[in-house]
């Protein structure tokens, strides 16, 4: 149990499912052995008088171990019906379904008295992972422009120009930035949105061009779908990596709609536009940060 507490939060590949079953089974078997000793020494006690006799063993420590494992794992993870199904399939003991159900639901009820979240939910919150619970109803009286980044005092949004950037400029942005992707615009002056490209795909493409020897710092990079003579061109074309229909919302879109898009579609970010011009990006971290500010 002590090792389980010490190792769960470490950044190593270890689980919680089997250790919880083991600890619960050990505790259950200890209780079962204690009850077996009591029933042997006090066979006339009213708890054992009805079902115990010389020919029938009324206390089986193995059953206590199974029920204890179910109760311990149910209290840690707040699993109920699915846990009972798993335990029945593991043991092939359909006759144990009633005590397993009682133990799982009792563990959840008593666990909720102290903390409403399971250990996995608590660990997500402890590590500040960007997670929006689909069961929770988030209420934010704001618009997309209030939550997006950048705001007034933030650095400008990092974008790529569809035509006119050199390979060195694109590589510098891709290597030094920590963003998931970059919006592609017509020009810095217009900021008209053309598409979106993932940073991972962009870095992989640049690496391939460098390995092939086609990459030079002054070579132009094109993200547009312009029709040219491919045989004579000397630029680096990356239009196949561009998503030309990225998911966008207006700057006046309600945050309730934005949160529903994140929860139901599972997108990593949303682009915020105003009359076709890119003005910001919203991520799950931005939403959670805004919720924390509202709580304060």
Order of adjacent strands in the largest pleated sheet = 1-3-4
> Could you spell the SSE succession in H and E letters?
HHHHHHHHEEHEEHEEEHEEH
Briefly note the structural class of the backbone. Answer: alpha/beta
DSSP helix count? Answer: 12
Distance between the termini: 36 Å
Count of DSSP E strands? 9
What proportion of the residues form beta strands (DSSP E)?
5-15%
Question: Mean pLDDT across all residues, rounded?
Answer: 86
Oligomer status? single chain
The stretches of 5 or more residues where confidence is low (pLDDT under 50) are none
How helical, in percent, are the residues? Answer: 40-55%
Give me the Rg, rounded.
30 Å
How is the biggest beta sheet arranged? 3 strands, mixed
Q: What best-fitting shape do the alpha-carbon axes yield?
A: elongated
Protein architecture, described:
The protein is α/β, with parallel strands linked by helices and about 300 residues long. The protein is about 45% helix and about 15% strand. It has 12 helices and 9 strands. It has helices at about 1-5, 15-40, 45-50, 60-75, 80-90, 95-115, 120-125, 145, 165-175, 200-210, 255-265, 285-295; strands at about 160, 165, 180-185, 195-200, 220, 235, 250, 270-275, 275-285. The strands form 3 sheets. Strands 1-3-4 form a 3-stranded mixed β-sheet. A 3-stranded mixed β-sheet has the order 2-5-6. A hairpin with a 7-residue loop joins strand 3 (about 180-185) and strand 4. The longest helix has 25 residues, at about 15-40. It is elongated. The model has no long low-confidence stretch (mean pLDDT about 85).
């Amino acid at each position: 149990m002590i090792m389980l507490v010490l190792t769960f939060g470490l950044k190593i590949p270890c689980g919680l499912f089997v250790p919880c079953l083991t600890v619960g089974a050990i505790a259950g078997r200890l209780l079962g052995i204690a009850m077996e000793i009591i029933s042997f020494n006090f066979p006339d006690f009213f708890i054992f008088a009805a079902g115990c006799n010389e020919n029938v063993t009324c206390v089986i420590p193995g059953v206590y171990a199974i029920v204890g494992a179910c109760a311990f794992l149910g209290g840690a993870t707040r699993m109920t019906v699915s846990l009972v199904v798993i335990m029945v399939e593991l043991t092939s003991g359909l006759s144990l379904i009633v005590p397993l159900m009682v133990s799982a639901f009792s563990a959840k009820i008593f666990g909720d008295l102290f903390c409403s979240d399971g250990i996995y939910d608590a660990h997500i919150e402890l590590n500040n992972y960007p997670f929006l619970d689909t069961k929770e109803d988030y209420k934010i009286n704001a618009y997309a422009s209030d939550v997006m980044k950048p705001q007034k005092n933030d650095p400008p949004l990092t974008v790529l120009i569809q035509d006119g950037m050199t390979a060195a400029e694109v590589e510098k942005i891709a290597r030094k930035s920590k963003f998931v992707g970059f919006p592609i615009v017509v020009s810095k002056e217009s900021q008209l949105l053309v598409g979106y490209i993932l940073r991972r795909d962009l870095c992989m493409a640049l690496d391939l061009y460098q390995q092939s020897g086609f990459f030079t710092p002054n070579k132009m990079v094109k993200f547009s779908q312009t029709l040219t003579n491919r045989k004579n061109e000397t630029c680096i074309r990356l239009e196949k990596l561009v998503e030309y229909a990225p998911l966008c919302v207006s700057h006046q879109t309600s945050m309730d709609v934005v949160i529903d898009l994140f929860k139901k579609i599972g997108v990593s970010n949303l682009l915020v536009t105003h009359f076709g011009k890119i003005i910001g990006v919203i991520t799950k971290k931005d939403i959670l940060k805004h919720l924390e500010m509202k709580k304060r």
